[in-house]
Structures are given as C-alpha cells and as structure tokens.
Design goal:
- The complex is a heterodimer.
- Chain A is mainly α.
- Chain A is built from ten helices and two strands.
- The longest helix of chain A has 34 residues.
- By secondary structure, chain B is mainly alpha-helical.
- Chain B has a single domain, classed as Arp2/3 complex 21 kDa subunit ARPC3.
- Helix content of chain B is 64%, strand content 2%.
- In chain B, α2 packs across α4 and α5 runs antiparallel to α7.
- Classes of the chains: A mainly alpha, B mainly alpha.
- The interface between A and B is large, with 90 and 84 residues.
Chain lengths: 238, 193
Amino acid sequence: MLTYHPGDSLAHRLDPRTKLLAQAAFAAAAFAHTAPRGLAVLTVLTAAFLAAGRLSPARAIRGYLPALPFLAAGPLIATVNLDVSALSLGIEPNAAVDPLLASYRVLLILFVSAVYLHTTPVRDSRAAIQRLVPGRVGHLLGVGVALVFRFFPLLRADLRRVREASTARLGDERPLRDRMRLVGATGIRRAFARADRLALALRVRCFAWNPTLPELRFGRTDALGFVVVAALVGAALL
Amino acid sequence: MAAETESVELVGEDVVGNVARAALFAALTGAFAYVSFPNPISPVPVSLQVLGVFLAGIFLGPVWGGVSIVFYLAAGAAGAPIFAGGSAGIGPLVGYTAGYLWSYPIAAALVGAVVHGFDGLDDPEVVATTRLVAGMLAGTVVIYALGTVGFAVVQNVGLVEAFTVSALAFVPFEAVKIAAAVGVVRSDAAAAA
C-alpha cells in the first residue's frame, strides 16, 4: 500500500500544492500526447519524478497492482475482431497499438501519483485541498477529508470483525444477498453510532469554520516545480 | 502557524451533524472497498463500494449523500487507500476508473432524489420498495454508463469492448446489491438512523 514515508528528497520538500498541480498538468500532457514520441518524453519525466521522490518503480507499481489486469485487458480485447453476422472471429494485432499506448499513458499517470502519495503527509494534503478550493466549500472538503482518514480504519476494522464472526458461525454458506445485507446493516449501524458520537464531540468542542492548519509556504524548490508545471501545461495546450 | 484568532465562526448545529454523517458514510464506502466476494465469472472479485453509494443516497438524501461521496473521492485523491483494490491518489481519478469514480457522487445524489424527492428527508423505512429499487436502478445505469464511456475514452477502445472489460462481469451483482440494500433498509439498522 502506498503511504507517506518521511524523507528529505526533493519531492518531499516541495509544497503539496505544487505537487497536486504537477500531477494534473502531467495527466493533461499525457492525454494530449499519446503518441510514442510524447510518451517517451513523459517516461523520462516520470523517471525523474520517481528519482526526485526516491521511490522505486517496483514499490510504486505494487500500490496499483489491482489496476494491471484492466490495463492489459484493454489492448487484448481490442485485437479480437468478432463479426456476429458473418459468424467470424479474427485476431487483429494492429488494433492493439492505440489501446496499448493508452494503457501505458495511464501507467505513467499512476507512477506520478504514487510519488505524491509517497512524499506528502495527510495533514499537508488536507491543508493544500483547503487552500486550493476557496471559501466554505474548501473548508467543508478539508474537514471531510480529515474525518475520512480518521474513521476509515475504524470502520474497516468493524466490518472485518463482522465478517470473521459471521464466518465462524458458517455465515459463508448463506446466500450472497444475505451476506451483503449483514455487512451492510452492521456497517450502517456502526457508521451512525460513530457519527452521532462525533457530532456531539464536535459541538462540545465548538467546531468552527476556521481551524489552524499546518503552514504551507512555497520555497525555492517550488520555482523549479512551477517551471515543470508550466512546461507540461504548455505541452498539453500545443 | 496561520491561526485565525480574530473571530471564531462556529459551524451551525445542523451542519455539524450532517458533516459527521457524510464523513462517516464516505469512510464506510471506503471500508466497503475491502469487503470482497469471489466473482464466479471474473478473476476480479466483487466489492461493495457501490452499496455504499446506494446507502449514502438512501440514508443521507440527495444533497448530503452526494457530498458524502465527494468526501470519499477527495480523501482518496489525498491518499486514503479507499478506491477499488485499496488504491489511492489522483491516478485513479484520471485513469481508466475515472468514469466510475466521478459517477458515484451523481449516482448517490440521484438515488437520494428518487427516494426522498427534494422536500426534505423521509424515513427510509416507510419509503415504498418500488421507489427504493427505482432509485438504485437509476443509480446503477448512471454508474455503468459513465463508467463505460470513461473506460472507452481513457483506454482508447470502443464502447462494446469497454463494457465487456470493465462492466460485464459486475453488472449481474448489482441486482444482488440492490436486494441487499433493500434488506438493510428494512432491517433494524435503519431504526438507528
């Protein structure tokens, strides 16, 4: 699983806002230039990003392992040429080229977002989101993100306990619908109970719209980051 | 520290409760991504995220149900491992799963709108089963339509191929999820809402 690892690499020192913008610009450039030449340049850039975050490609790809079958399936299925009216089934290797390039572009985008996850603590991400999205909406989003991070592991543990208890009582042999209903009903009950306690706690502590966030400041390395962002945006627009 | 000390603006009573519920439902949807059942027709297992989307619409209504799933997407983008298969980051939001993920808030709002209308929330327990099922069917159509189009655009394949790869093996299980969601609403769990 890809999570934050403390470090002092170049990517660690960048402001999270710069990194978010760089990801968006990279994705835009990858969609604009899905030709072999464009992707070659972006591959070099991806390697530079991975080096800047001192993240090995193997670790990055392990975080997105479940995506790989889908990335492989697109090009594979494009080669199958099925004509129902003529009842013929052919294989056309050339048809795989475009979907293959598209899959590769998604792979590069996943590498780049892995660097972000590896180098950015949650608190900084929350502060960046709250500062990038203006006004109340940004505050609401920031609070929501922070609470999801806080409660996701608890609810996941709740659900795991339910499933273990159910398995111990041969719940595995019940129909799929019943098993889903059991997990869903318990999840809802736990979520509501936790939400009520949380709401009470927030009211007691005078939950306000203006929290104290970690300070974010653009540094000298961010200037380099902005050059990269500008180049990527320029490439995407050309 | 950029602490704001001049004035403290308290969040309103109703909003606090709704924010807490929306955030908890977003976390629940994320936890559902880890609840997987073996899929007899595909190597990729069936997970329950979509059930979380349905339940957010049913229990929180069109507005806060939608907000809840927006929290889910934002937290996933910021690095919570809550997308399919425990992935996270901006990548899934612009990759081949983009259509599916961006359709979730729309689907949750739509389910909420069909179940509750726009004149305040009804108690889900007293809503007719046909209305619940209609809402979730509409949500399913939105999710798979946007998901398939998203997959086709991002992966550069035709719509039929996109549907075959990304949806075909999962659509039958949506019926089971809809039945399970009706069961959840009709069980004691709804009494806690």
